[in-house]
Design the sequence.
């Protein structure tokens, strides 16, 4: 009887250990945080250059942004569309790639471009009232000579926000 009880305790211990390991594995896989669901893609023009940008136009999609992405295509980015034209700020929490953000006013005119380092909590803000922000791989704007005053040409469907 004593031998059977020991075997039962061992089996229970092994089962508990296995369940704990699975639970820890699940926690670790979710530790990085959310990844953006598939978003609509819009084609925009920045000066003479064409960008395929994911459209972040709701509170949730703007909050998640490019978090936990391993890479971003060469001429790909994310266009943030805000409800109101005001000072907008971004940060890089849980973002794995270095980015540049171009803040633009309600007419699409770039106000300022800020470099943003992956994984930092530094705040990067628009220099004036911005309605849009375009995130691209770091160096994309400077390599193409795009500076403040340049125009973002946005399709109409990219200008609306969702709840």
Sequence:
């Amino acid at each position: 009887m004593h031998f059977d009880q020991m075997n039962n305790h061992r089996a229970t211990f092994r089962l508990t250990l296995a369940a704990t390991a699975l639970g820890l594995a699940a926690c670790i896989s979710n530790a990085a945080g959310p990844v953006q669901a598939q978003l609509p893609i819009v084609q925009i023009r920045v000066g003479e250059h064409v960008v395929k940008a994911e459209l972040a136009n709701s509170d949730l999609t703007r909050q998640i942004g490019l978090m936990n992405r391993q890479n971003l295509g060469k001429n790909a980015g994310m266009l943030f569309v805000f409800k109101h034209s005001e000072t907008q700020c971004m940060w890089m929490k849980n973002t794995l790639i270095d980015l540049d953000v171009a803040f633009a006013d309600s007419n699409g005119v770039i106000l300022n471009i800020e470099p943003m380092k992956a994984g930092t909590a530094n705040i990067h803000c628009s220099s004036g009232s911005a309605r849009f922000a375009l995130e691209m791989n770091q160096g994309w704007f400077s390599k193409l000579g795009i500076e403040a005053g340049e125009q973002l040409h946005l399709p109409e469907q990219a200008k609306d926000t969702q709840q």
Observations:
- The chain has a mean pLDDT of 84.
